[in-house]
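A quick aside before the break. I want you to see a complete sequence-to-structure record at least once, exactly as it would be stored in a machine-readable document. Don't worry about memorizing anything.
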Amino acid sequence: MNWKQAPLGPVQTNAFVLYNEDGEAIIFDPGGDSEPFEAALKKENLKPLAILLTHAHFDHIGAVDHIRDVFNIPVYLHEREAHWLQDPTKNLSVNMSPEGVTARPAEHLINGEQSLAIGPFAFRVLETPGHSPGSVSYYHEPTDTVFSGDVLFQSGIGRTDLPDADEATLLNSIHQKLLELPEDTSVACGHGPVTTISAEMDGNPFLNGLGEGG
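That is the input. The structure line, written in tokens, reads:
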């Protein structure tokens, strides 16, 4: 199994595509550029099985309906953000355009930490709130990767100056959930370059008392 990173949408949010040798795939956070993203998936002869959302802010959901309709696949989202897909105020797109960014409800709601199996793919779902109340991270042991959305970045952490965000909660999520993963785990972030748990343990100023929240 392997994965690819695809910055999409108005703020170049990282979508990730995890796939196996048979072309079966899981899509994380398709944030926009619906038609080019569809074309790229088809060019690679990939067969998506599901969309997994780390959370429901607008920049992570812009291509959700297009991709799920084209490939006829379900969407997974934490239940704490069950209504955010339809609510431009909650997903923070209310000021972007008259209609904002919306998507239909998710077919599957995540409730609590759990193992999640979709076809040949198996994940450990970690609740990692703080940037948003329903933020989750998907740990994929076969590739030593955690798909973490906007929780932990290279030398940074997710914004906590947003509605429903809380810095203490976010830092607790990082320390209690992500930093407990093997140190060689790749962190597939929602923005910017991929990093590793060990690199952030050693050098992230926000985790060592040197950074400022935001």
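Two observations worth writing down. Residues 210-214 have pLDDT under 50 and may be disordered. The chain has one domain: 2-207. We'll return to this after the break.
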